[in-house]
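Why does residue order matter? Because the sequence determines the fold. Keep that principle in mind as you read this record.
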Amino acid sequence: MEFQQVVDRRQMVRDYTDVPVDPALVDRALRNATRAPNAGFTQGWGFLVLDTPEDVRRWWATTAGPEALAAPDAWLRGMMRAPVVIVPCSSRAAYLTRYAEVDKASSARLAVVEGEAPWSVPYWHMDAAMASLLILQTAVDAGLGGCFSGIPVPKLEAVRREFSIAEEFEPIGVITLGHPAGEARTGSPTRRARKPQTEVVHRGSWI
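Structure:
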């Protein structure tokens, strides 16, 4: 598929068939994820992959709860059919360690001072987010569907415990992958128009 087609066809898919996903496609998506830009080539990301029916069900049991699983609404029914769940995680500690190394610490502009990060935004999250986008784009290129969504805050600790996520890593969300059930576009894009470039692109000055 041409690159522009991949970009234009990407959408958040929330309804899947139960057809399995070729493991080679999952591996390709993860390979591409690790090619994302990342500050200092820190590579401070990790990916929890759940690709068996048992593990996928554990995910929904942990994040949605047994009552919701017993009587799922339309959204949960569609999402639960996705045969692959990927949880991208980021490590702040990895970036603090990397930017304390000689080649980075020699720059006063980037040095970590007393354990505090020197960035105006948390690049560990940004880098993991860019990796997540590459997973979603790879899914489109492979004819699959994908959806990035948040993890309910009250469920974060339960997720960490259930899947033994390392203490230094923080889940930034969850990606479902699978074969889309139909072509219908759903979600906010069906209710909201895309803003024109003239409204969001500012050349030379914001005003």
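The chain has a mean pLDDT of 91.
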